[in-house]
């Protein structure tokens, strides 16, 4: 599919990578609008097509007392307000078949979490909404196996799909990115590299996922150099106090420098 098919997308013909970025979870209206405004200002300056990301619900949590959201409809209404306020598209993840139709009424892209990408009914339900479906590669799956997830979307009557690599499990508590997977998966669909989740350190004994945010620039640069069509970056103005995934998020104050560097790398790669 073409980026220009997404409602409200800007800079679709800039030949730059596209960006899915925002907080891990929608914590409230003010924070969502604040982050979206900042990221939009940067991406407009750099001609980067931008889609605001925010989870309306966090269903995959380590502990029962972990933050899961502020309420489904409330969070989805905030995503709609972000879209209407800044005239930008939005993306959120879904976890159940019933989520697909509900979320599709508010956002432009439906994301299938990595742990659920083999759930046929969920993928089909997302595809049948007519929205773009962002398929996150399972941490347990090979790049080649993602062709079958893409085919499920196509068999459901849609070609609106991307693949997002979010790393592969390495032992019990670490993730690695096999950059050979990017050109492989590009044979099936456009490929996004999830920079921040690739740096998670899951399964910590205290039940709170860790991360390596100091490696964000390294992974992002390598992703652009190896041909990723888009990047996925979770960012927050106060990662330490974020209610979800703060350990691997990028501080919002560092985003402009990173995207400026990545845009320069993209230009060099495209010129070769």
UniProtKB/TrEMBL annotation:
State the superkingdom. Bacteria
Q: Which GO terms describe its biological process?
A: lipopolysaccharide biosynthetic process
Q: What class of enzyme is it?
A: transferase
Q: Which Pfam families match?
A: DAHP_synth_1
Q: In which pathway does it act?
A: Bacterial outer membrane biogenesis; lipopolysaccharide biosynthesis; Carbohydrate biosynthesis; 3-deoxy-D-manno-octulosonate biosynthesis; 3-deoxy-D-manno-octulosonate from D-ribulose 5-phosphate: step 2/3
State the InterPro entries in the record.
Answer: Aldolase_TIM (IPR013785), DAHP1/KDSA (IPR006218), KDO8P_synthase (IPR006269)
UniProt KW keywords: Cytoplasm, Transferase
Q: Where in the cell is it found?
A: Cytoplasm
GO CC, sorted alphabetically, is: cytoplasm
Q: State the family named in the UniProt similarity comment for this chain.
A: Belongs to the KdsA family.
Q: What is the designated name of this protein?
A: 3-deoxy-8-phosphooctulonate synthase
């Amino acid at each position: 599919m073409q980026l220009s098919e997404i409602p409200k997308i800007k800079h679709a013909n800039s030949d730059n990578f596209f960006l899915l970025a925002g907080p891990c979870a929608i914590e409230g209206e003010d924070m969502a609008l604040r982050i979206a405004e900042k990221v939009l200002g940067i991406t407009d300056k750099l001609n980067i097509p931008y889609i605001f990301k925010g989870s309306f619900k966090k269903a995959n949590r380590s502990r029962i007392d972990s933050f899961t959201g502020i309420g489904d409809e409330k969070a989805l209404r905030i995503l709609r307000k972000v879209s209407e306020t800044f005239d930008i598209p939005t993306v959120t993840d879904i976890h159940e078949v019933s989520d697909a139709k509900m979320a599709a009424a508010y956002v432009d892209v439906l994301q299938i979490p990595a742990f659920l990408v083999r759930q046929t009914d969920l993928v089909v339900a997302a595809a049948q909404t007519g929205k773009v479906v962002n398929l996150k590669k399972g941490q347990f799956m090979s790049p080649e196996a993602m062709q079958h997830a893409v085919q499920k979307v196509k068999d459901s009557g849609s070609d609106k799909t991307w693949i997002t690599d979010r790393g592969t499990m390495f032992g019990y508590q670490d993730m690695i990115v096999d950059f050979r997977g990017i050109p492989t998966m590009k044979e099936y669909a456009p490929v996004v590299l999830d920079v921040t989740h690739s740096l998670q350190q899951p399964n910590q004994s205290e039940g709170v996922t860790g991360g390596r945010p100091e490696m964000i620039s390294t992974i992002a640069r390598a992703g652009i150099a190896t041909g990723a069509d888009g990047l996925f970056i979770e960012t927050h103005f106060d990662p330490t106090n974020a209610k979800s995934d703060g350990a691997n998020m990028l501080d919002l104050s560092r985003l402009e420098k990173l995207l400026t560097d990545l845009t320069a790398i993209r230009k060099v790669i495209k010129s070769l």
